[in-house]
Write a structure and sequence with these properties.
Its main location: cytoplasm. This protein is an alpha/beta fold. It is built from 29 helices and 34 strands.
Length: 840
């Protein structure tokens, strides 16, 4: 095939690719090419082709030439953090363009002020093509030829066409954030029992379904239609199992974390919204805006965490010898990570270690003569660069995991060096980004907060920081890196801002706010173990939602009167075989010991929908949230339910255990489950029947609450699911986040109906969904007749304090007004206007 011409996409200064201030481009890890410093904001096609990718943020575009080459134009460096600000997309995927056609426009001044560099790589991706640039270091005009590209070597051994699969299935991605690292890792895990070759097609591309990085590069987002294709003897089973798993949402994000929190237990979606000025220095030079990744405020001194790459030998001592070194390191890391079941970050890193595409990329680097360490670094950094240039902010955040695996592998190859970070007391750690392994090396006693120039609110370090109570602000831009070590820095507790060397008045205001909050928290903690009684004598139980033994310990320390919801999914998820009865019983016993005899309400397995189990495959469902989940799935596998009942009975004392059934819709389900429970009790010789309650998560259960209360020993409202079903607002859909508000009058009316039904038969009723953890909602819940609140462990002291300030009789008019409201915002205004009056 003849040479193809590359033309300048805009007026600018032509430079060698090696001058780009980004190693992945400069070292041609992504492919050969040139760089241009733009003098205008209109980007044109450098050759004829078809648009293959347009970044959602508008900062890059890739077109495919007729010879198969993919040409990437990436405007500036680190411009993805601008999140589309200053960019305009002109073309769409699939558009056919001619050389010189306009592809993108951007505000040269705005992007230039906020980007790390405007130097723009023009790269022919991959190793299959070579680029020959004409003379560089000169000014060029748009449309002027600047080089040629051509296929590299013989391509005759490539497959002539696609392989016809033995089985194929189509569906749409239901996950809120699409296929990012955690779901991709679970896709690979789902396929482990099968031999079939499975691919996923979508967004105009195709990827090996066992390769996390290949899946990430497809950029499969919420609602994207995909095709799963399989070839081999067990292709039908493999494809159907994977389709069922993806259609069911792969796994609940909170459950996958293994921390026992619902998403609403940690940081609300409203708290995670992007600051409108993120990454910009405000008019006040002492304030830098970012994005809140973990809640809280802190005052301390700046401490720059610098990541220096270890020097590695470039050339190896033969392919076979270096391959053995690399495989030994990968296996050592794999074994280390495999010892952390339920640890989401370890699972993601383990999937990277087992990624067949990455292993092949490393082997290719070894074959070129590189050492084991250099091969690992080259392959992992190339994949990280591809994710960063994808235009998808969530995928860009996953690049840190690849770099963390690189760091760990090189440590194993060269000999791990103990990394002790000498932090000052009250350190506000400042870095370009922080890797998970770096986070765990920080001294928690001296760590006040973390602030990063890049990163994202859904990164693994953000999850770690939130779970450890470390305030964190990300995406502050390069301005934060100019803060000198030792400078007084404040992380604002409300707005996602960093105050640098704050003025005395600002510092005094911050300290006053933090002092008041600290005194309030201390007072709440000091009284957390006391009974929770309103000012007019009504007893309200405050229990904790738990998803692990550690949660139970935290709950007891924070004053919880017991566990109002023990999520048992953490025992069943993330594995290829179900837990044994003995394993379950031992875990329940450990939870019971952590709570020192306090009551525990164990929710039976709530799998299906967004929490599928690989070893309990279910048919692909158009709408899994309305399908075989919760008690429906358990009753379809009565042997699994019976075994869980037996484990609960043998693991917990009779006076401590309660059992609760999820997703009940009518009496028949309750009766069927109760019959299985009584049979198990008779078989194991249980002396006293176990209290059996139900969760009110469906409108039918709320409307039938009075009938349900005739036979259920108690009722507990699961506000998260009930809200989504009442308002027809999928809680995983980011466009509906604000709509899915449990304080909507329609939802509260079902709360009231359920409470009335419970009272008719002398049953108690609780709330165990996210709304129970909101102290602002306490007055309305008490006014509706709720007897028990089950909250996240950290929220126990604050909720108990809120209850003690209430006059229960005064809450009833507030609840009545809320039921007569017309919107959730109206209810929240009522709470804000009247809460203090009712608390007096």
């Amino acid at each position: 095939m003849t040479d193809a011409i590359l033309s300048a996409p805009f007026d600018g200064w032509l430079a060698p690719l090696g001058e780009v201030p980004d190693e992945a481009f400069a070292t041609e890890l992504l492919g050969g090419g040139v760089a241009l410093d733009p003098l205008e904001g209109t980007v044109r096609a450098p050759c004829n082709g078809v648009i293959a990718v347009v970044a959602a943020t508008g900062h890059s575009v890739t077109l495919r030439h007729q010879n198969g080459a993919d040409i990437l134009i990436h405007i500036g460096i680190d411009t993805v953090v601008l999140r589309g600000s200053g960019f305009e997309r002109v073309v769409a995927v699939g558009d056919r363009v001619a050389s010189g056609d306009v592809l993108l426009r951007f505000d040269l001044d705005q992007v230039g002020r906020n980007a790390r560099s405007l130097l723009t790589p023009l790269v022919v991706l991959g190793e299959d093509f070579e680029v020959e640039a004409f003379a560089v270091d000169r000014r060029v005009s748009a449309g002027e030829p600047i080089g040629v590209f051509r296929p590299r070597g013989d391509r005759s051994d490539r497959p002539a066409g696609p392989v016809v699969p033995d089985h194929l299935c189509r569906l749409r991605i239901p996950l809120l954030h699409g296929i990012h690292a955690r779901p991709a890792a679970r896709i690979a895990a789902t396929l482990k029992p099968f031999e079939a070759q499975v691919t996923i097609q979508g967004n105009g591309g195709e990827a090996n379904a066992r390769s996390v990085t290949a899946l990430l590069k497809l950029d499969l987002r919420h609602g994207t239609e995909i095709a799963i294709a399989g070839s081999g003897s067990d292709a039908v089973l493999a494809v159907e199992a994977l389709a069922a798993s993806i259609a069911s949402g792969l796994a609940d994000e909170a459950a996958a974390r293994g921390d026992g929190f619902e998403s609403s237990d940690v940081v609300s979606d409203r708290e995670l919204r992007t600051h409108p000025d993120a990454g910009a220095v405000t008019a006040d030079r002492h304030r830098i805006a970012g994005i809140r990744a973990a809640p809280g405020g802190a005052e301390g001194v700046a401490f720059r965490l610098r990541s220096e790459d270890r020097l590695v030998p470039e050339l190896g001592h033969g392919v076979d010898a270096e391959h053995l070194v690399l495989e030994t390191a990968i296996e050592a890391l794999r074994q280390r990570l495999a010892k952390q079941p339920g640890n989401e970050i370890a699972e993601a890193h383990l999937a990277i270690c087992e990624d067949p595409e990455l292993r092949k990329a490393m082997d290719d680097q070894l074959a070129s003569g590189l050492s084991a360490a250099a091969a690992a670094r080259a392959a992992l950094r190339a994949e990280a660069a591809a994710l960063r240039s994808s235009g998808n902010a969530i995928l860009a955040e996953r690049a840190a995991d690849l770099l963390d695996v690189e760091r760990q592998l090189i440590g194993l190859i060269l000999g791990e060096v103990a990394s002790t970070v000498e932090q000052p007391d009250g350190a506000i750690v400042i870095a370009e980004d922080v890797l998970p392994s770096q986070f765990v090396s920080l001294d928690p006693a001296r760590l006040a907060a973390i602030v990063t120039a890049g990163g994202g609110a859904t990164s693994h370090v953000a999850i770690l920081a939130a779970s450890r109570g470390v305030p964190m602000i990300v995406a502050c831009g390069d301005a934060i890196l100019d803060v000198a070590d030792g400078t007084v820095v404040v992380v604002a507790p409300v707005r996602a801002e960093v105050l640098v060397d704050p003025q005395p008045a600002a510092l005094a205001a911050f300290r006053a706010d933090m002092s008041a909050a600290d005194q309030r928290a201390r007072a709440e903690a000091a009284s957390a173990q006391e009974d929770c009684i309103t000012r007019d004598g009504r007893r309200i139980g405050v229990f904790a939602n738990c998803g692990s033994v550690d949660d139970a310990r935290r709950a007891a320390i924070n004053g919880a009167e017991g566990c109002g919801l023990l999520r048992t999914e953490f025992l069943f998820l993330g594995r290829t075989t179900p837990p044994t009865r003995e394993e379950q019983a031992a875990t329940y016993a450990a939870v019971g010991a952590a709570l020192a005899g306090r009551p525990i309400i164990v929710r039976t397995l709530d799998a299906g929908s967004d929490k599928p189990l690989a070893y309990l495959p279910t048919p692909v469902e158009e709408n899994p949230a309305l399908g075989a989940r919760g008690i429906r799935l358990s009753l379809s596998r009565p042997e699994v339910l019976a075994e869980q009942f037996e484990a609960i009975i043998t693991g917990l004392a009779a006076d401590q255990r309660r059992i609760m059934l999820p997703m009940v819709t009518d009496l028949a389900e309750l009766r069927a489950a109760k019959a299985i429970l009584r049979d198990v009790e008779a078989r194991v010789g249980a002396e006293n029947p176990t209290e059996l309650g139900i969760m009110i998560e469906t409108p039918s259960a709320a409307l039938l609450a009075e009938k349900m209360a005739e036979e259920a020993d108690f009722l507990s409202i699961g506000s998260n699911d009930l809200t989504q079903y009442v308002l027809a607002a999928d809680r995983q859909n980011p466009l509906l986040t604000a709509m899915a508000d449990p304080l909507h009058p329609a939802v509260l009316r079902l709360f009231a109906q359920a409470a009335k039904g419970a009272r008719a038969h002398g049953r108690w009723i609780g709330v165990c969904g996210g709304v129970a953890s909101d102290p602002a909602a306490t007055a309305i819940l008490v006014g509706l007749g709720i007897d028990e609140l089950s909250v996240s462990p950290p929220a126990v002291p604050a909720v108990k304090s809120a209850v003690r300030r209430l006059v229960a009789a005064g809450c009833e008019p507030l609840a009545a007004a809320a039921l007569d409201a017309t919107s959730a915002s109206e209810v929240r205004n009522l709470v804000e206007e009247h809460f203090h009056a009712f608390a007096l």
